[in-house]
Design a protein that fits this description.
Layout (H helix, E strand, L loop, with lengths): L3 H30 L8 H17 L6 H20 L5 H12 L8 H9 L14 E5 L3 H13 L3 E5 L2 H10 L4 E5 L10 H12 L5 E5 L4 H9 L4 E4 L4 H15 L5 E5 L3 H13 L3 E5 L5 H8 L3 E5 L7 H9 L9 E5 L4 H8 L5 E4 L4 H23 L9 H18 L4 E7 L2 H8 L1 H18 L5 E6 L2 E6 L4 H17 L2 E3 L2 E3 L3 E7 L6 H17 L5 E3 L6
Parallel strand pairs: 1-2, 1-3, 3-4, 4-5, 6-7, 6-8, 8-9, 9-10, 16-17
Antiparallel strand pairs: 11-13, 11-16, 12-13, 14-15
Helix pairs in contact: 1-2, 1-5, 1-11, 2-3, 6-10, 10-18, 17-18, 18-19
């Protein structure tokens, strides 16, 4: 986990750099106007306006709001002189130069304010991925053993108890990610799992995500679970794959991939400040100070939100936004403009060029974080509705194909290797014909749950069609992919499905290949598919690696 104190130290150092740069900037500006009267050349006035515009937008972000206010006032005056070609009177000009010189005083005692900044709470950095820890409590030893084995096959770390009192000791000592509790605990005190959970949470000081299971389907049991803060309610007999799906859903609500943000601003110090602010809020942020580098960085980062400075030399934010929108892949990405300009007409014109929102500098850390988080969350929700398969929650056919192309190109640019796998459920038609299509859907969802649990966060999983799946594995070669998919194959084959008292198992076949074996994404997909075909012809229930002999 990233140390929040590290962010504080970096921001303090960045603030110190800002003050040093500011002093140098003021020295340069004062030198430019020194000894000059009202016959100031237009070019120098334009230079003054540009520098003051930047100071007005950055001062408040670094904890100097008075600097922003005074720089803004000076900027407005210069802008009026430029637009109206007005020659200021000598007294007005001298007053303006005095106010410019006074900007340095707005910094106050930097050492004291820097010390306060270092002590700020900067938020929790995003967590590293780890196995989901689940505690099971059920007095039925046979069911407890079945659920423990089944959930372990999905990759969950399970601790099981037949007595709630024993579980409570361990929970209080080291709280898990999730609880699964039987409502009816015979011979225990209390004998109601919902009451036991309420008392546990009171001692713990907060509630844990809890799934209640019971053989009682009446309203009173449901109400008791709701009063105890239950996150889900399942009726016995409990299907392991259904329970695993609920656990995954609840965990995904709490743990999600950090929002990715790209900041484009020619002011490198200010851009770094924004980056550290968003990183401290648990986001993954990168900065670009040259507009011509934006598209290449976007291909690597695949940001959820773009923050673009509206006023940049050689390329305005609105022009950059329009250029980005030319790419179909970036038509829907939220673009938020950053600028010290507060004129309504300028904002409307900029938004008309492809932007979605407008933040006026200086921007507080809280406002920046809030706007970015809202925009990113909405974008992900829309993307999920458009790109995810409704049954499994995996990427749709077109989306996983696009992801293959992106990762092949990324691997080529960075001189790395990536792999992919094609998978297919064996004799799936027999499953539908024997056990019915609803049960077939359950088998498909179970494999989707298992893949999400066993694969890495950076891997992409898609439902390629029907009972066929595709997996994209960055920074991985074919031999590593083979071992990974072999583990998935074995675990899936051990899962027991139950339908109306009868049980059955299902196997899968897979083919793997990597980018080192193929020229492009199309070739990689064909190679993985050929390896899958070889696995099917070789007797099914196996994983094959692509070789030249398979073609």
């Amino acid at each position: 986990m990233t140390d929040p104190a590290s962010f504080a130290s970096q921001r303090t150092a960045l603030r110190q750099q800002y003050v040093e740069d500011l002093n140098n900037t003021l020295d340069a500006l004062l030198c430019r106007v020194s000894g000059r009267g009202v016959d100031m050349p237009t070019a120098i006035l334009a230079e003054l306006h540009a520098c003051l515009h930047k100071l007005a937008g950055s001062g408040g972000a670094f904890g100097f709001p008075e600097l922003s206010d005074q720089a803004k006032s000076l900027e407005i005056v210069v802008k009026a002189w430029l637009e109206q070609s007005v020659v200021p009177e000598l007294a007005q000009w001298e007053t303006w130069k005095t106010d410019l010189s006074a900007l340095r005083q707005t910094l106050g005692d930097f050492s004291a304010s820097a010390d306060r900044t270092a002590k700020e709470t900067l938020g929790q950095a995003f967590k590293s991925q780890s196995r989901v820890r689940v505690v099971l409590v059920d007095d039925d030893e046979a069911l407890l053993a079945e659920l423990t084995k089944g959930l372990s096959q999905f990759g969950y770390e399970i601790k099981s108890y037949t007595h709630f009192a024993e579980a409570e000791v361990d929970i209080l000592d080291d709280p898990p990610d999730m609880l699964v509790i039987d409502i009816m605990l015979f011979g225990q005190t209390p004998d109601d799992g919902t009451d036991a959970a309420i008392m546990l949470f009171a001692r713990l000081g907060y509630s844990l995500p809890t799934i209640f299971i019971t053989s009682k389907a009446d309203f009173s049991a449901r109400l008791a679970a709701a009063k105890a803060g239950g996150s889900a309610f399942l009726i016995k007999p409990v299907d392991v794959s259904t329970l695993a799906g609920r656990i995954e859903m609840l965990h995904r609500e709490r743990e999600f991939e950090p929002y990715r943000v790209l900041i484009v601003d020619d002011d490198e110090v200010l851009a770094e400040h924004y980056r550290l602010t968003l990183m401290a809020a648990g986001m993954l942020a990168e900065k670009v100070c040259r507009p011509n580098e934006v598209l290449a960085v976007m291909l690597d980062l695949h940001p959820d939100v773009l923050l673009i400075d509206l006023c940049m030399p050689g390329c305005t934010g609105a022009q950059l936004a329009r250029a980005i929108r030319y790419e179909e892949a970036w038509l829907s990405i939220p673009i938020v403009y950053l600028s010290a300009a507060d004129e309504l007409d300028e904002q409307i014109k900029a938004l008309d060029s492809g932007g979605d929102d407008f933040l006026t500098k200086p921007i507080s850390a809280r406002k920046l974080e809030t706007v970015v988080r809202i925009r990113a969350a909405r974008a992900r929700k829309i993307d999920e509705l458009m790109s995810k398969d409704s049954l499994t929650g995996l990427l749709k056919h077109s989306s996983i194909k696009e992801r293959i192309e992106q990762e092949v190109e990324r691997a080529r640019r960075h001189g790395k290797t990536m792999a992919m796998a094609m998978m297919d459920l064996d004799h799936f038609k027999r499953v539908n014909d024997t056990w019915g299509h609803p049960m077939g859907d359950q088998v498909i969802k179970t494999l989707a749950h298992l893949l999400r649990q066993r694969l890495r966060r950076q891997d992409s999983i898609g439902r390629y069609g029907g009972e066929e799946f595709a997996v994209v594995l960055p920074d991985c070669d074919a031999s590593d992919a083979l071992r990974l998919l072999e583990d998935v194959r074995l675990r899936f084959g051990e899962i027991v499905f139950v339908h109306e008292g009868q049980s059955f198992t299902v196997t899968l076949s897979a083919g793997v290949a990597d980018s080192g074996q193929c020229l492009d994404a199309k070739g990689l997909l064909a190679a993985a598919d050929a390896a899958l075909y070889a696995a099917k012809n070789g007797g099914r229930n196996q994983v094959r690696q692509f070789t030249e002999e398979i073609v």
